[in-house]
Amino acid sequence: MSGEGEAAAQQIPELASGKLLAEINNRIVALTREHYGRGPTKAKTYVLDDLIVCVLRDGLTPLERTIMEASGPDKVLAIRRDFQRAMRAQYSEMIEQLTGRKVLAYISQVHMEPDLTVQAFVIDGPVPGYGALELVHPEQSQTGEMLH
Asked: Which range marks the domain in which residue 115 is found?
């Protein structure tokens, strides 16, 4: 890390390890609860290098379940997708504040059965203390043999 991201990360040392994961969970659930009147019953966050993934379970409201039973999942999925687009800036700002890194991409997907929402954030560098293994295709010779 260098520059602005490093300075921000150094300002939040109390959010190392599990505390960062818990804070991301708590804030995503709180934002959802604030706007839907109800949040998911379970949330789990994973941080791996420059990727943050939040899996939210059991977040459908009674109204959404009623609409889904009467009309199918398409209307509820559309509402949820609209909500995620509307919340993109707030979610991204929260991740940037907690990690000291810039969010490059925010991806959200809703799944009805089981009731899951997956939110993924790709950030501009690794979160200190969280690593990853990157696989790169090995170069091949012109004959198609792998180079060693």
From this structure: 4-123
